[in-house]
Amino acid sequence: MAYDYFSSGEFASKSRRTIFYAAIALIGALYVGRLVQLQILEGEKYKSQTEAQAIKQIIKDPVRGAVYDRNGALLVHNVPAFSVSVTPSEFDISTVGFLAALCGIDETELKDKVERYRKISPVTPVKVFRDAGDSIIAVIEENREFLRGVSVTPESKRIYDYKGNSAHLFGYTREITEEQLKNVGNSYRPGDMIGMSGIESSYESFLCGKKGIEHSAVNVRGEKVASFIDGKNDTDPEDGFNLNLGIDMRLQHYVDSLMSKHRGAVVAIDPNNGEILSLISKPDYDPRLFSGHASSEAIQAIYDDTTRPMFNRATMTNYPPGSTWKMLMALACLQEGIITDNSTLFCPEWFIFGTGKFHSHGVGNLDVRRALQVSSNSFFYQLGLKLGTKRFTKYGQMFGFGERSGSDLPSGEEGKGVLPSEEYMNKRRGKNGWGEGSLVNWGIGQGEIGVTPLQMASYTATLANKGVWNQPHIVRSLTDKRAGVVRPLEYASRKLPIDEHYFDVVHDGMFAVANQPGGTAYSDLDHSGTIKLLGKTGTAQNAHGKEHSWFVCFAPREKPVIAICVMVENAGAGATVAAPIAQKVVEHYVSLLAVSPKKQIDSATINAPIASMRR
User: May I ask the CATH architecture of the domain 58-245?
Assistant: First the structure.
């Protein structure tokens, strides 16, 4: 029989009971103190740690801004789509083969991408497959427990909703690279789309919008089970601004069709404000290939194409302008008093300078109007010599040559061309390596001079305006959808210090080029219509093959509405190929204006203008 200490009274002595109760009180006090510490003193600290495990931030992407033409036609917009994302810290790498097979992507590439971003930002979801179809989404949902860290999230897909490509104008969007992520701050995450070229790139900060955040309670499998504190900490995404262009997409499509079999570029500008009406470069590529799930093989084929479809011939070429340069020479020499509008120069068939013998068409005693009409090389050889290097460079700079046009395309997609100067020539050839012989060539737009079609279109628009230069641009205004206002963009304008009368003289010569027998474009143009072009042909020498064909023009003479440059590579004499294209473009645009006048921005919706986008 067991001995009962309590009944015997030995354990229940007063001293033992006191010690026992004290121990119990101490233990209780410790528990209570710890609870006070956890719940009151350090409650917020542990609450936040708990929420960090139970609350998940879901990024809500904004809708990228849309693009409209000058008549309000929707050109570029978005449609709903779904992407497959992987959160590296939650993803079981052993399931990478299954996910790759499901999405039809390379397993090694998928694994490398997940591991790369695991080091960069392990808790940030990375988009690994875009534009997922219903079948892929269904399998992922059915295998959610197996595919931990894999989620399907809504996004938008970029749609280029017009005929043709116009890739060099609009550009394209593509997934942001790791290198770009280092330079864009916290606005972008791995897998985000970003403008890579064209206006998609130059207006990225306006188009992209601002992300929103949704805080959701999730279970141990990462599945959303409820909103957190009724969404009080959530922020809505802010959609990007819409772009309203000066482009007339009807004209753009027409020009595209005219250039479909050629290699070259066309740029048309509204002389009244510098708005680019059309910009085409051929060959080109389809920007739609970069939207949604982009095929790496199709994209690589574009990069590998020997015709260089990604090279923007409208803004990046560096070809001599040939005889289209002669109007500039005429204006410079008239303004400097070297010639008058009535003075004549004797123009031989062969112009002799030093040991050089230079051929000329257009011979006899010619004034400047006739010299432009017949494109007399001898006349402009002489003007080059009389003008001299410093004044040559001065007037070239007036018209914007030797520098980027200031358009709103990305600066990396527009060349400066070459405007020779003493400094340039000394650096290139040495002080004793060149002389007045260079001026002979420069007088007819040859030699070291290099230009782009965009520069030439801007130059032609300035001629049409009798010396008013307007900064060429594609986007005329932005629409702030949240505020419900249209914000016009400001662009530069300046008046060249050249007497307007001299522009009238040059206009006479340009009119004769296209409309009078003996003009270099006369026999290649259709004279049955009522629209009279003022133009100039040009043939640029090409050391690697057949000459390049130039034609610049504007119309009508009074109150011109369009100025245009056409450049066709390896097409020979300027009038043969380029001039008929330009005439068709001008006539088509004028006919469009007759049935659909230029749309005006509703002044009631205009807010303060935004500063110039000039690069």
Answer: Alpha-Beta Complex (3.90)
